[in-house]
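Entry: Antitoxin
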Amino acid sequence: MGKIRLSREEAELLDSYEAGEWRSIEGWEVEAQRYRECARATCEKDRRVNIRISSKDLEGIQKRALEEGIPYQTLISSILHKYVSGRLAERE
């Protein structure tokens, strides 16, 4: 069987995990529920919207989506849903 080739980022994550740097978070159930609600809110898509945004904004959105582990379109949809439902909190 051949050896699996990892990208640099994957190798760094594996090294970090094997070094014991990862810890379970307190209250992960609440976070999991939050992600389920976001997914549910964005799954019922029945319309398409095309928008133009700056490359810098799109790159920022894609980076945040990667950090959250979700597709960037899902993140955009979730943000819009939270805004129109009055649940989008401003950062301090």
